[in-house]
């Protein structure tokens, strides 16, 4: 892993993800999350202060030691136990059916094998457990989608493996989830290549 990917990219991610305009979407996806929670791609922990009193414990994974260091500063103030693990989401060190609710926000775009990660999430969710998701991905507009597919090989080299062209709904369905509700569209201002979003929940 080169210096750019190891050192520069995590700092750029933290700066981009703490934009105030993202807060309302974070609040929407986390509203009512409860029980034993897993967050994959926790990053610098920007979701952590938004978890409510219904959470009894939180386990979270991320491969970046720099971002997890920032997350630990917030985790220490939370009123429930938090375990932060430096590791990939494709292999979760958790027992089957040990989680009530899973959360992923702006992470499936850059996980090397998102299908494997989602299958792992499904494995650790209890029967009937819920996955909350908020992700950018492939547009439903064919012309824009074609540009996303053309530019993804260059973009992922510049942006830490981020893909512009992943169909989040199809990944969820292939992993065995049943989508309960989902909103799609340009949920944020900004470049249309980056702002087509999938927001919703799915059941194990």
From TrEMBL:
Keywords: Methyltransferase, Transferase. It comes from the Bacteria. The keyword Iron does not apply. InterPro entries: Methyltransf_11 (IPR013216), SAM-dependent_MTases_sf (IPR029063), Thiol_S-MT (IPR052356). One of its GO terms (molecular function) is methyltransferase activity. One of its GO terms (biological process) is methylation. The keyword Ligase does not apply. Residues 38-132 form the Methyltransferase type domain. PANTHER family: METHYLTRANSFERASE LIKE 7A, METHYLTRANSFERASE LIKE 7B. This is Class I SAM-dependent methyltransferase. The lineage of its organism: Bacteria, Pseudomonadati, Pseudomonadota, Alphaproteobacteria, Geminicoccales.
